[in-house]
Amino acid sequence: MAEPAPAGTPAPDEQSGPDDRSAAPNAGRTGGSTAGRWDRGWRGELGRLLEVTALVGLVITQPLLDVLGRSPDFFLFHRADPAQILLLVALVAVLPTTGVALLGAASRLAGRTVRALTHTGLVGLLTAALAVQVGRHGTPLRGVPLLVVALAVGAGGAVAHRRWRAPRLVLRLAAAGQVAFVALFLVASPTSAVVLPRGDGGAAGTAQGAGVHPPVVMLILDELPLVSLLGSDGTIDAARFPHFAELAGASTWYRNATGVSGWTPNALPAMLTGRYPAKPVAPHYSQYPDNIFTAFGGLYDIRAEESITRLCPPSRCEQPVTPEQGLGVLVRETGTLLGRIAGPTDSTVDPEDSYREQTRVEAGLDAAEPVPADPKFRWDSLDDNQPARFTSFLAGLKPAPRPTLHFLHLLMPHSPWAYLPSGARYDAPEDLPNDGAGWVDLARQRHLAQLGYTDRLIGETLRTLRAGGLYDQSLLVVTADHGVSFRPGAQGRGMDAIKAAAGEVAWVPMFVKEPRQQTGRVDDRNWEHVDLLPTVADEANIRLPWRVDGRSARQAPRTDGTKHFYDRPGEPTTFPGGMPSPPPLPTPHPLVGTQVRAGPVAGNARVADLAAFTATDPDTGTLPALVWGDLPDQIPDGTLLAVAVNGRIGAVVPAVPADPGGRRFAALLTDDTLFRAGANQLDVLQVTPDGTLRRLTLS
């Protein structure tokens, strides 16, 4: 009978493999003992590799591929080709496992006992990392408490692994999970359509009658409520948005137009296929083979600049790769995602939602904001792609021997809000709330400022069309896929926003300038965005080869005024039509624009990036136009604060109650003439009830 192992001796499985004690009794008397020990050692190393593979798969591979697999638009946004995606998957599945396995194998140089202890320690650490993720999903624990519990779980896992054979066997069987995770990503996830596309688009449309095929120019904006463009009289506010007013004055304005979804990967395919959203699938040509690009592809050349969709198949148009794209970008972004997944605290961007729309936690949206089935791309990467796509779009607006469809989906004025009306950029923290006292007004102000810049882009498009000789002969379409609510307590585009402020979420600008149209007109028919494709096809004299849910504007208007909106594909919400009323614009405080006449010092405040005011260079295109910081408790909530640059007040904002980021204030200075090159004097002043200004000492 075998002697029991002394206390502290590694378990037989960890010394020389799982079958150490089953060796023949007389093996040690022959030369075959060396081969037997080598065989048992090899099997032991293989077992340890399988255990590491299982744990790394659960800690890294599965959560990463889960989020990435539900994020086809992340890859589409970065224009990743199938080879790059496959290589990224290989790196995710192999590299972490290899690194951990090599670390353990290197410890064998210090002896079998050190090797066994190192492996047990790695098992404990990986178990703790897994416990962090499970704890964040299933418990309210965060930060240090969660880390302490996870370390305790990891220690318990290490002890169990060292003492009992069952945990080791379970882990070795679980190693097959790595293969399963990769297979699910490649075959069953929404991203599979991007990696392994099936089909190359649907049938091409045919000529309809003997009419000509005019050049078609389509500019689809993003997250633009119609009401943001309107003045108090219900017309386009020409003072704030002169180029939108110019467009309305020479086109048909479908004033009662609504998008069909608040989520772009559902809304845009509906616009370009003429069909209501039916299934939560990738916005990819293999999932939507019948779309405007396939219909027009037989008769038109296509220049398409898509941002988060890939509806135009390679047989119709190839989208160029910008310098920012490539495997390096994918690896960097995936590494950032892993950091959020692995952390014991909630980051500004929820780790599980890194490629989705912002959630209530990070953006102050309404509590009913849904988590879509297919996560959205990261909006904070907006500036990586949009200027290049807009420039490429403008460069292509030239006459051509064949009719051409020019298409651009531009992520403006969609958040993140970073532009003043002049086009100057400003920086802002990611965690500023969008809802609550003071914050909702700031969010809408920032949206309107970026809309002012979008108006300049519309003007540049009209100028380029005229300069290139395309304006008169073109069919020009300008619209947006959906709006957004700035209603207090119902921010965003979820069901709470739809119920409380459908006029801000569903109604969008819709302008169609027909070839040679000179004067504007208003059409108040019940337009839904499934009408876009049949209308454009009719205007281009193309017969669509598939059935659509929409109705061409050349047909009689709908007799039913009901609107259909899909918060989730296949689940329509209906509400009555009719023109929405624009929310009243806040009246500027009378101090804005006046010179500073400050009284005594009233206290202090901390301002972020105060150094930016000491060396401002407007030629860089960036200004410190968003001033934010912390306030002491001595300044009561609701106290007005005047923010002045170089002696002139640019904004007056209230001190607001504390939020998770602290007791903060923020003010947007939309007038960039406040700034000058070099040093600028920033003042934050407390406005007393009698109108006296008291300067705060800034640090």
Explain briefly what this protein structure is.
This protein has 699 residues and is α/β, with parallel strands linked by helices. Helices cover 36% and strands 16% of the residues.
Based on CA atoms alone, the radius of gyration comes out at 30 Å
Strand order of the largest sheet: 5-6-2-7-10-3-11
Q: How many E strands?
A: 22
- CATH H level, superfamily name of the largest domain: Alkaline Phosphatase, subunit A
Q: Class of the largest domain, according to the CATH hierarchy?
A: Alpha Beta
Low-confidence stretches: 1-31, 350-384
User: Helical percent range?
Assistant: 25-40%
Output the number of helix runs. 18
Given the helix and strand composition, which structural class is it? alpha/beta
SS strand fraction: 15-25%
**For the terminal residues, how far apart are their CA atoms?**
78 Å
Identify the overall geometry: globular
Protein name: Arylsulfatase A
Biased composition (Basic and acidic residues): 560-570
InterPro entries: Alkaline_phosphatase_core_sf (IPR017850), GAG_Ulvan_Degrading_Sulfatases (IPR052701), Sulfatase_N (IPR000917)
Transmembrane segments: 85-104, 116-135, 141-160, 169-188
